[in-house]
Design a protein that fits this description.
Shape: globular
Strand content: 15-25%
CATH topology of one domain: FAD/NAD(P)-binding domain
Structural class: alpha/beta
Number of helices: 13
CATH superfamily of one domain: FAD/NAD(P)-binding domain
Bound molecules: succinic acid
Mean pLDDT: 95
Low-confidence stretches: none
Largest sheet: 7 strands, mixed
CATH class of one domain: Alpha Beta
Length: 520
């Protein structure tokens, strides 16, 4: 263990590693990365489609990308944050190319561009067909391994350390089993999302909301957590996480059909609308899945080699089979509230990527804006630290804390710190995690109502009571229950339907609720 770091990054996806690479390039700056698996393991690695960015050439423009993002976000995006996203995105894509990331190009050497739902034009740069996240992660991991001062792999961040109202590091269980404080002048949460609060998800097992839970325990403001994006075209199969059939397939002409073979939805609508239409049709037809028809797609194996390999390993033939699909929890649109620099409400604590609520996604993220958000805001955090910025400004989503487009939720009690006492009962913890995930899928999934949310809360309370021991399984369960509770409180208070939040008992959008619900 070394002395105090200048920057400690928690998490190893695109947001955290982009920040780490940038910070470590400054002479004398001491950067650490702490992550609970190996460095290369993160949700970024699973990202398929690509990065939405306007890289030049009519008829596309950043104004159009901005308009598409705002439309998908259903009235809750912060326009300034989205402007930053679309304008700085292209530069960050070029930074990645300079770092060695190889995106797919045509015969003339130009980026190949795909189209996805909610985008008015093809503007998605991709790698390896739809293995974009893996390529970005490869390039960033290589750079971080050679540049960072300290890398803590297989280390579980337990809690933020606060001294005199400032975050000064993280208390973590390290790979050798000891619990230590890693001190840093600045801590960047870049620990990704919380798809594991649901039983049906595209997220890896590690996506347990650890960063958001730490922020909640430290009293940092969190918002928009009721907006969980369900990806409509996850393969309906017992494998978990659910294999993803990228939105890029629909951009290339794949069709969604019901089990009778009928089309019923415009495949190029934003994800929330497609998922909702699918769930309604599934209920109508008493079935648990729909079908994705990729039989008409030319050169499927060449354009989508990783999906072709996955399908073949599961005995599906995309040339002839209609593929069973159902919505799966995919992305948390909200998280730790930040300003336009990624600063949280707690001095010394920053957040970027899926863990953050920067205001760019609003009530529903536009396809392929997530890798983009990570690289743009990860870089902004480092620039702000370099410029000596202290504390959050009232910009971006942070404005919500002053009642400008936001309202604080009452009745929230801060979760207890994680236990370092005796290990919990492994079987009871695993069962409680399964039960909670299933309850969340049934009661707080694509469609919710007051009764289903209340019933789910009881299951989450039961799981929380069992998460009182030490060890990763118990800590993860405690974190999952903390995020699930925050989601349920916000989903209950949002008595309307908007974006990815659909209430059966409140089907209309309420103009008075065009604001962020903040938990602090
Ligand atoms: C996809 O390829 O459909 C997923 C990419 C994303 O989540 O934006």
């Amino acid at each position: 263990m070394t002395a105090e770091l200048d920057l400690l990054v928690v998490g190893s996806g695109v947001a955290g590693l982009s920040a780490a690479v940038r910070a470590a390039a400054q002479p004398g700056v001491r950067v650490g990365v702490l992550t609970k698996g190996p460095l290369e393991q993160s949700t970024t690695r699973w990202a398929q489609g690509g990065v939405a960015a306007v890289l030049g050439g009519d008829p596309d423009s950043t104004d159009l990308h901005l308009a598409d993002t705002l439309a998908a976000g259903a009235g809750l995006c912060d326009v300034d944050a989205v402007r930053v996203l679309v304008e700085e995105g292209p530069v960050r894509v070029r930074d990645l190319v300079a770092l060695g990331a190889r995106f797919d190009r045509d015969a003339d050497g130009k980026f190949e561009l795909a189209r996805e739902g909610g985008h008015s034009l093809p503007r998605i740069v991709h790698a390896g067909g739809v293995a974009t996240g893996a390529e970005i992660e490869r390039a960033l991991v290589a750079a971080v391994r050679s540049e960072a001062t300290e890398i803590h792999e297989h280390a579980f961040a337990l809690d933020l350390v606060i001294e005199n109202g400032r975050c000064v590091g993280v208390r973590a269980a390290l790979a050798d089993g000891t619990i230590e404080v890693v001190r840093a002048r600045n801590v960047l949460l870049a620990s990704g999302g919380a798809g594991q609060i649901f039983s049906v998800t595209t997220n890896p097992l590690e996506a347990t909301g650890d960063g958001i839970a730490m922020a909640l325990r430290a009293g940092a403001a969190v918002a928009d957590v009721e907006f969980v994006q369900f990806h409509p075209t996850a393969l309906h199969h017992q494998r978990m996480p659910r294999p993803l059939l990228s939105e890029a397939l629909r951009g290339h002409g794949a069709l969604i059909r019901d089990i009778n073979g009928e089309r019923f939805v415009d495949e190029m609508l934003p994800r929330d609308q497609v998922s909702r239409a699918m769930v309604r049709r599934m209920i109508e037809l008493h079935t648990d899945h729909c079908l994705l028809d990729v039989t008409g797609l030319d050169q499927f194996d060449v354009r989508f080699p990783t999906i072709a390999a996955m399908l073949s390993s599961l005995d599906f033939n995309p040339a002839t089979d209609l593929l069973p699909i159902a919505p799966a929890a995919h992305y948390l649109c909200g998280g730790v509230v930040t300003d336009l620099n990624g600063a949280s409400s707690l001095p010394g604590l920053w957040a970027a990527g899926e863990v953050a609520c920067s205001g760019v996604h609003g009530a529903n993220r536009l396809a392929s804006n997530s890798l983009l958000e990570g690289m743009v805001f990860g870089a902004r955090v480092v620039e702000a630290i370099e410029n000596g910025t202290e504390g959050a400004e009232r910009t971006g989503a942070m404005r919500a804390l002053d009642g400008d487009g936001g309202r604080r939720l009452e009745g929230w009690s801060t979760p207890a710190p994680l236990s370092a006492a005796a290990p919990g009962d492994a079987v009871a913890i695993a069962t409680a995690r399964d039960d909670m995930q299933w309850a969340m899928t049934v009661g707080a999934g694509v469609v919710r109502d007051a009764t289903s949310l209340a019933a789910t809360e009881r299951k989450v309370d039961h799981a929380r009571a069992l998460a009182n021991g030490s060890g990763v399984a118990s800590w993860e369960l405690a974190n999952l229950t903390a995020v699930a509770s925050a989601l349920l409180v916000a989903a209950d208070a949002r008595t309307e339907s908007r974006g990815a939040h659909t209430r059966d008992d409140w089907p209309e959008t309420d103009p008075d609720l065009a604001l962020r619900l903040v938990i602090t």
